[in-house]
Amino acid sequence: MGLASLIAASGALLGALITLALALPPNRHTAANQQLAALMGLVTVYQLSTMARHAPDIQWLGPLLPLSLSIFLLGPGLYLYTRARIDHDSQWRRAQLWHTLPFALLLLDAVAGTTLATRYPHTIGVLCYLHLLAYLGISLRLLGRARRQAELPPAALRWLASLLWGCTALALPGLLFAMGRWLPGTIGWPQQLWSITLTVGMSYLIAFFAVLDPSVFHASRSARADRKATKARYETSSLGDEQAQQLWQQLQALMQDSQPYLQPQLKVGELARQLAVPPSHLSQTINQVGGCSFASFLNGYRIETAKTLLRSSQPGERTMLDIALSSGFNSESVFYKQFRALVGQTPRQYQQQG
Length: 354
Description:
Blueprint: H1 3-23, H2 31-54, H3 74-86, H4 101-112, H5 116-119, H6 121-148, H7 154-180, H8 193-212, H9 219-233, H10 241-257, H11 268-275, H12 279-288, H13 294-311, H14 320-326, H15 332-343, H16 347-353
Helix pairs in contact: 1-2, 1-8, 2-3, 2-8, 3-6, 6-7, 7-8, 10-12, 11-12, 13-16
């Protein structure tokens, strides 16, 4: 076995172990972990298929050779996992199958015997990295939006940022190496060596975080960690429990009477000014008494307003953008995502059932 085969073998073993760990209870109960397990299973299959190329003497790996094209599923897998974490464990839907189209077409081509991947390996390699980097860019954009809207705890944000930026840092040189194959006289790298390195690096990154902070893969542990962090954050606060309960009642009354949540750009400081309290006390009350972030607190009221508007109008009578803006959301996409996360169906589905 050569260097590429040894790296692939180590990656396959680590990927299989991570897949097994995520597929066993108590980790498998979240949709995000299920999607990550599927992604790591894909990585394992890819590593085995590359061994079939670099170690032809291992005959039982031969049938797996066409599955080396599964590298085209890496980008979609990372994107769907990122979205599952940000969208509060959104479930897999059939409409997402279109993400597998490049892999499916190339696999059909390989099975049919036309073998575009074999005839144009350099072009396929460049397309592979461009495809992966495009999905990483979309995933990083989702992550940036989640950070701005405080949709995830800090530990989850750090984990996703490390995973996505780590894969990006490995994919960019891979693209350069792939493009370099077009130039005459360049140093030849073993076929797929960098993609093997990328997937092995991703596996080790996941394993590292699983040891460093297992809460990012375990929802209940993550919740306990968040509660501990919240408690520690407010240990020196001058706001007592009784005062917090009173402020919570005042906040509820203000939300019902004045409906400040209908302002799309409402900040905690503005709401605290209306209540004549320090912003830190209001944040503490929402976190400890309400058990949620400021953004989640506002979105709860906005979704209830949207549900009322949807029930009081006929399908097609008002646009979803109009309902979103009337409910306090600043965009239709955020409205759809928050509505689906809290209600379990899209606004249009909710309206049709009403």
